[in-house]
Amino acid sequence: MDVLADVGGRPGLDCRGFCSYCYFKGVKKVPAFGCKNCMPFRKGCDYCSRAIMEGYPGFKPINDVLFEVAQRCMGSIPDKVTISGGGDLSCYPDLIPLARMLGQGMVPISLGYTSGKGFESADDAAELIDAGVNEVSFTVFSTNPELRRRYMGDRHPEIALENLKSFCRSCAVYCAAVIIPGVNDGPELERTCNDLESMGARGLILMRFANQRDQGLILGNDPIMPGITPHSIEEFRDLVTRTAGQYRFRVTGTPLWDPVTGAPFALARRPDVISRLTPLRRGASIITSRVAAPMLRSIFSQMETGDRVNILPVEKDIGCLITIEDFYGLDLDRVMETVIIPGRTMAHEKEIKGILSKDGRERMIIRGPDTLTVDGEMSISMSAEEVIDLEVEAFGELIEAINAMGI
Q1: Residues 75, 76, 79, CA angle at the centre, nearest 5°?
Q2: 17 CB burial (10 A radius; 0-12, 13-18, 19+)
Q3: What is the three-class DSSP state of 258?
Q4: CA nearest neighbour of 365 among 347, 379, 387, 381
Q5: Of 263, 255, 260, 265, whose CA–CA distance to 295 is shortest?
Q6: Exposure of 255 by Cβ count < 10 A (0-12 exposed, 13-18 middle, 19+ buried)?
Q7: Which pLDDT tens digit goes with each residue over 34-80?
Q8: I want to staple 254 with a disulfide (CB 3.0 to 4.6 A). Which of 103, 192, 376, 402 is the partner?
């Protein structure tokens, strides 16, 4: 049993200030999007009106966190506790005592996210390791202290990096870096990777910088960094491939890709597995993102009756960040009577149906699985077969929905 210890926290406020590239920077008050959690005839719920913007009131008192964990454990000793929240864990004032009380010398602890900006001493990591921390997700951005100081607002980058070294010596550390063209790519990325390899990091997740609405900024705050043009999807994939080939640790990318597992949509390169999927007996239109569309087409084209499905991408790179505005650009002549949308689409079915039925044809809107695959943030700790197993299960659910409700 894995248990989450949610300490709360607010982006920008409980992390010692926004990083210059943070996608929560400049967020505006936006109306509720609508989502899978909303009531059928009412748009708006706690998730799509508050939680998506990390609308925590602040860090939770340590006793509240411990009480919530105790409730989730229900008297059992968990296999692992993951400490996470909306701020930076290194800024949580009671992180070390919380870890000690959660670990009790027997339960391994994972730190869900930290950049190290809140560490005051180079010995903080050692105390956390002594308390039971054995896995860390660390946003490094760069191992160049000046770049961390300038772009992350890190007032003590040397201390943060010393703690990272300590974590790497004793824990499974997966680092992450949002890649800004001309800032921390090129020679700076090579320097960071060389440093991480010498430290003993387990892996590095390269995260494509988003600066426009179609790249995933849906909270009214684009652009985050005026004048910066992010890598194209193709450029970013090449960067991940090139970097992964140069170092011993795992390198993955988000929104794509993972050279080891083939994620996302590793099935596209496994015709032997595709041939064993449940056959399609009916058809539907699948609304998806620009990143996913070519890989979905590849998978369905390898199925015996895959031509019963048509893949329609909207102008959005990431499927779970599709909003109602994205549906207006679809050519209704190509949209079938049964429409499958990503399970986590940020729009309400009633509004989607209204847009897609403007030509007088009644269409059924069905939410597909929450995920059909995994991105680099998940696959970095997975094997190729684990990814395939996950995708087979998800595509089985998708095909079942099409066969049950399709035309």
Answers
A1: 150
A2: middle
A3: coil
A4: 347
A5: 265
A6: buried
A7: 999 999 889 999 999 888 877 678 999 999 999 999 899 887 888 89
A8: 376
Rounded CA gap, 37 and 56, in Å?
19
Q: For residue 117, what are its two tokens? A: 């900006």
What is the pLDDT averaged over residues 300-305? 92
What gap in Å lies between CA 240 and CA 244, rounded to an integer?
6
**Model pLDDT for residues 48-61, shown as the tens digit of each residue:** 988 887 767 899 99
Q: Whole-number mean pLDDT of the chain?
A: 94
374 close to 396: Cβ distance less than 8 angstroms = no
Q: What does the DSSP 8-state code read for residue 231?
A: P
Q: Kind of pairing, strands 172-179 and 203-208?
A: parallel
Contact between residue 274 and residue 304 where contact means Cβ atoms under 8 Å apart = no
What pLDDT, on a 0 to 100 scale, did the predictor assign at position 73? 87
Tokens of 242: 């090139």
pLDDT tens string 344-361 = 999 999 999 999 999 999
List Cα–Cα distances, 177 to 21, 97, 151, 227, 251, in angstroms: 11, 28, 12, 20, 11
Distance, in Å, from the CA atom of 14 to the CA atom of 91, rounded to the nearest integer, reads 7
